[in-house]
C-alpha cells in the first residue's frame, strides 16, 4: 500500500471550514484518496467519465454561472463544471476529506487548462453548508448522497443554497427495485470491485459499497424526499441498465 501513496504537496490551497459531523467515513475517504481516480477508471472501465458528463449536463450549468459541486472528492465533476461555466463563472468544490481536496488541488495546479483557475476548494460538511441562501445557479453531487449520514438534511441544504428556478443533479449507484438488476450489481461488487480493491490493499474500504446501496433510497424515494424538502419538480433517471441513477430536481 505504501508504494501507492502519491507524494502530495505539503501546502495546498483551499479554504478550511470546521466539519461538525466527522466520522469514520471521513477517515475512509482520506485513506482511499491517493488511488481513488485510478480505481474509478479501472472499476467502471472508464464509464464513470460518461456518467459524470451526463450529471453535469443535467445540472443545467452554463457560461458565467456560480455553481457548487458537493462531495467533490478529487474533483472530476468540478473540472467538468469549470469548462461549462468558463472563466466568467465560478465553481466551488466542497468535501470533508482533506486528502481528497489535496488531490483535487494538485490536479488543478498541474493542469494547463486556464479555466480551472475558476475553481475554489472548500473543506466543509454537506450537512451544514457555509453558503448563504439562494446563492448557486446549479449544484452537482457525484456519489456523495449515499455516503452522507443524513440524506434528508443534505437535500434540505442543497435546496437552501440553490437559486429559485435552478437545478440539482445527484449521481449515484441506483438502488434498483428490479431483482435482476440488484443481483447483477451485487455480483459485480463481490466479483469485480472488491477483488480489484483488495489488490490495492483496500478490501475493507470497498466492502461497505454493497450495504451502502442496500441502505440507500430508490429513485422514487429520492424523488419523494426532493419534493418534501421543497423542490418544485424531481425526476430520477436510471443509467447503464439501472446500475447507476441520477436525480434531477428543480427549485
Ligand atoms: C465516493 S466519493 C465521490 C467523489 C466525487 N464526487 C466523484 O464522483 O468522484 C464521496 C465523497 O463524499 C465525501 N463526503 C461524504 N460525506 C460528506 C459530508 N458530510 N460532507 C462533505 N463531504 C462528504 C467524501 O469525503 C468523498 O470524497
Automatic annotation (TrEMBL):
Superkingdom in the source lineage: Eukaryota
Gene3D superfamilies found in the cross-reference section: Vaccinia Virus protein VP39
InterPro entries noted in UniProt: MenG, SAM-dependent_MTases_sf, UbiE/COQ5_MeTrFase, UbiE/COQ5_MeTrFase_CS
Record-level Gene Ontology MF annotations: 2-phytyl-1,4-naphthoquinone methyltransferase activity; methyltransferase activity
Assigned keywords, A-Z: Chloroplast, Methyltransferase, Plastid, S-adenosyl-L-methionine, Transferase
SUPFAM superfamilies: S-adenosyl-L-methionine-dependent methyltransferases (SSF53335)
Uppermost EC category: transferase
GO biological process: methylation; phylloquinone biosynthetic process
Record Pfam families: Ubie_methyltran (PF01209)
Protein location: Plastid, Chloroplast
Catalysed transformations (reactions): demethylphylloquinol + S-adenosyl-L-methionine = phylloquinol + S-adenosyl-L-homocysteine + H(+)
PROSITE patterns: SAM_MT_UBIE, UBIE_1
HAMAP family recorded: MenG_phylloquinone_subfam, MenG_UbiE_methyltr
Recorded family membership: Belongs to the class I-like SAM-binding methyltransferase superfamily. MenG/UbiE family.
Protein name: 2-phytyl-1,4-beta-naphthoquinone methyltransferase, chloroplastic
Source taxonomy: Eukaryota, Viridiplantae, Streptophyta, Embryophyta, Tracheophyta
Amino acid at each position: 500500500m505504501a508504494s501507492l501513496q502519491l507524494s502530495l504537496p505539503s501546502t495546498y490551497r483551499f479554504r478550511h471550514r470546521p466539519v461538525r459531523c466527522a466520522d469514520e467515513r471521513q477517515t475512509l475517504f482520506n485513506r482511499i484518496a491517493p488511488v481513488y481516480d485510478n480505481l474509478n477508471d479501472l472499476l467502471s472501465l472508464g464509464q464513470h467519465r460518461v456518467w459524470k458528463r451526463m450529471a453535469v449536463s443535467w445540472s443545467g450549468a452554463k457560461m458565467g454561472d456560480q455553481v457548487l459541486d458537493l462531495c467533490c472528492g478529487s474533483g472530476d465533476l468540478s473540472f467538468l463544471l469549470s469548462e461549462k461555466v468558463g472563466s466568467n463563472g465560478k465553481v466551488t468544490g466542497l468535501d470533508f476529506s482533506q486528502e481528497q481536496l489535496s488531490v483535487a488541488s494538485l490536479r488543478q495546479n498541474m493542469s494547463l487548462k486556464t479555466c480551472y483557475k475558476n475553481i475554489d476548494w472548500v473543506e466543509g460538511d454537506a450537512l451544514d453548508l457555509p453558503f448563504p441562501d439562494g446563492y448557486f445557479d446549479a449544484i452537482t453531487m457525484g456519489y456523495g448522497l449515499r455516503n452522507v449520514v443524513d440524506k434528508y438534511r443534505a437535500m434540505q441544504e442543497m435546496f437552501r443554497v440553490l437559486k429559485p428556478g435552478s437545478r440539482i443533479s445527484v449521481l449515484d449507484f441506483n438502488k434498483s427495485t428490479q431483482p435482476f438488476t440488484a443481483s447483477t450489481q451485487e455480483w459485480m461488487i463481490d466479483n469485480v470491485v472488491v477483488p480489484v480493491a483488495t489488490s490495492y490493499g483496500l478490501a475493507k474500504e470497498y466492502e461497505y459499497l454493497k450495504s451502502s446501496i442496500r441502505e440507500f433510497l430508490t429513485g422514487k424515494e429520492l424523488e419523494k424526499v426532493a419534493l418534501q424538502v421543497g423542490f418544485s419538480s424531481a425526476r430520477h433517471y436510471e443509467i447503464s441498465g439501472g446500475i447507476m441513477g441520477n436525480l434531477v430536481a428543480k427549485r
